[in-house]
Amino acid sequence: MSSFKLQRLPDPPLPRYPALSTTDIDKLRAVVTGNYHPGFCDVPNYHKNFKIKYNHLFLDGFSISSHVNTGHLHLESGPPENAYIIHLLPLAGASRIQYGRESLTVTDGTGCIVSPFRRGVWDYYCGQSQVLVRIERHEMETHLEALTGERLQAPLEFKFEMKVNAPGIAALRRFIQYMVYELDTCQDFVRSPFIQSAFKEMLINGLFVAQPHNYTSALLKTPVVSGPVYVRRVEEYVVEHLTEELSPIKLAKMFGVSLRSLQLGFQKHRGYTLRDFIKKQRLFLARQNLLKPRSRNVAEIAFYCGFNHLGQFSVDYKKEFGESPSETLTRAKKTGK
């Protein structure tokens, strides 16, 4: 196969997070082994023109990477591993992925997810480029236990092949594209733990809904909704911790109910969602702070109260109180009211 000159090797996405750009196979082994833990990494028929560019970013409980390579890169990994690896966004060329006895050629029309329980083999061919998402096993299992309200009786394992034309998988693919875009264009935005947690939750929920796995039927069961006692306890906790991270999954685990039971409990007994309750309480907290500005601006108050998108905060605030946050703040500074 033909190879590229180093200066002609295209830049993969995520250039702000370079991990490797080299022709040295030993450097490649060291970096890739540190990030994805393969048992074996080599370049078959290694020659001096082999090159790779590799970008990698670790986030909260998951990571995202991109690469482009010349030559044939071969990786092997034996169980047990400690993460799920999603191959859903190829950019050029093709790769061959094997999981246990199954194998698949990943191109623009195909995708797969490698669970951490069988031997995996990756062959990235000359000119191949793609984005990979890695989600830690602990994050997946903890999230699943929160959704079902039960301890796992067996490891979570997904169906290997992903049908990219299925509506759910297509939506998940677009979400990964959106994440890459935000990481490439707005670095400060994704530094927020709220944003990283939201990205992770969306990825995991998207996988649970869109990709078949051995707990699909358990998640489809209608949960038994507990009485309103736990709803009141969650409400009390939320009101006392509005400036902290308040993810539904964290609250469900904290109060010993499944995530779906918690969500249905709020909808049935309160007529609104848990997220709506958290948002409304934070809006009231923001108004209290805007009316007593203490020389702070709108952005500082919004971030303090748990809002990370100022535009949406302003829209929600005006809808709730009939005026913009800046109008409230200006009036408070002028009148002291």
Q: Structural class of the secondary structure composition? A: alpha+beta
* The CATH C-level class name of the largest domain: Mainly Beta
- Overall 3D form: globular
The second-level CATH architecture of the largest domain is Sandwich
Number of helices: 12
- Widest sheet, order of strands: 1-3-4-11-6-9-12
Ends distance = 74 Å
Q: CATH homologous superfamily of the largest domain, by name? A: Jelly Rolls
Q: How is the CATH topology of the largest domain named?
A: Jelly Rolls
How many domains would you count in the coordinates?
Answer: 2
Which range does the strand content fall in?
Answer: 15-25%
Spans of at least 5 consecutive residues whose pLDDT stays below 50 are 1-7
Helical content band: 40-55%
The helix/strand order is EHEEEEEEEEEEHEHHHHHHHHHH
Question: What's the structural blueprint in terms of helices and strands?
Answer:
Elements (H helix, E strand, L loop, with lengths): L17 E5 L2 H12 L3 E3 L9 E7 L3 E8 L3 E5 L5 E10 L2 E5 L2 E5 L4 E4 L5 E5 L4 E8 H12 L12 E2 L4 H19 L7 H18 L5 H5 L8 H12 L7 H7 L4 H11 L4 H18 L6 H7 L5 H12 L3 H11 L2
Output the keywords.
single chain, 337 residues, alpha+beta, Jelly Rolls, Arc Repressor Mutant, subunit A, 2 domains, globular, disordered N terminus
Protein model, in words:
The protein is an alpha+beta fold. The chain has two domains: 6-185, Jelly Rolls (Sandwich); 277-335, Arc Repressor Mutant, subunit A, CATH 1.10.10.60. 43% of the residues lie in helices and 20% in strands. The chain is built from twelve helices and twelve strands. The strands form two sheets. The protein has a seven-stranded antiparallel β-sheet, with helices on both faces. It has a five-stranded antiparallel β-sheet with strand order 2-5-10-7-8, with helices on one face.
